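Hey L., structure's done. Input below.
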Amino acid sequence: MAAMKDHETDLATRLVHHDYLPPTGFEAPQPGVYKASTVIFPNVAAMRSREWKDKSGYTYGLHGTPTTFILEERLCALEGGLQCVLVPSGLAAIANVGLALLKPGDEVLIPDNAYGPGKDFANGELARFGITHAFYDPLDPADLAARITPATRLVWLEAPGSVSMEFPDLCEQVRICRARGVTTALDNTWGAGLAFAPFDLTGDGSLGVDISAHALTKYPSGGGDVLMGSVITRDQGLHMKIKLTHMRLGLGVGANDAEAILRALPSIGLRYRAHDEAARALARWLQQQPAIVQVLHPALEGAPGHAHWKALCGAADGGQGAAAGLFSVMIDARYTQQQVDAFCDGLRLFKLGYSWGGPMSLVVPYTIASMRSRPSSHLKPGTLVRFSIGLEAVEDLRRDLQQAMERAFPAA
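Output:
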């Protein structure tokens, strides 16, 4: 293409079509940020021949840029997958999977302790499309096996469960589904690709989930300021179903958000370990407090599903096992909801807010009975409060918990 001459074009045109290109060969610790809706083709032949589905070329910003391609590949390395799509949130990842794989007359099975908005998606959009669902007991593989029918096409897995933190026998759940020819999708936000390998649960390559959905909002971001999700697979056919639905839904992520995740990924292992260590220290301390009747943390002895966590995650991190910086407690039933709320309000460093995985510690009280469709006999009577442990000093957080408990639970 011939270069423009200044005397032939107006300044406004020259500013849009200026032909200077910087020299190639620039390298820096962080990848470049490419923002685009329109992608320029050198000629019509290239426009007609480029293929966006396999990352061999660029066609439109929604289908990928160098920035998003790099992030997808690094996330595959994190979780052990081969293909990845990026979506605007963790919930969007769940929705992308359901809409890609299910049709009217199909059934999806969901653990009773799954992420609430994902259950709402099944109750709402999927139900309106003629797709049925049922909830199974995540701590009883036999219940899962009994609920699989000829209509079951997808089983969601979650390790551990949302809010109440039960850790399932994930390997047995996958074996059951594989034997029945049912696709498995794991919400791997808690594990984050670090606590265990979702596509290689046994360490010998013989057993793994089919799909890993990840709320990158949490540990991959680490800043509490980015909303994003991913869907990762190892099977090309399965990936293409998800990718084509992703395209037809018009799902995409912003380049600056992708940049933020790319900047945070190199430190995810260090941050995850720091969150984990702080959470375990505070969880063990809370076990000794008279107002607390139960601590729900998979890495602690006696927690629901602890043996399953130990079997799957116990070899990670030098044999200490790996767990996220997230746990819940049951506050003694003798204390009223008003007292529990006062405890949460009385915390100074812990802030009231949803999500987790960021630098700031968070607290949320829950009414667990309203979130479950079956009795939770493994939970002791009381009021559940969930903590997300940030990156503050552990002793400062402990003092904050202590002062709030002393004010809210004086008889403890």
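The radius of gyration is 24 Å. The chain has a mean pLDDT of 95.

-- N.
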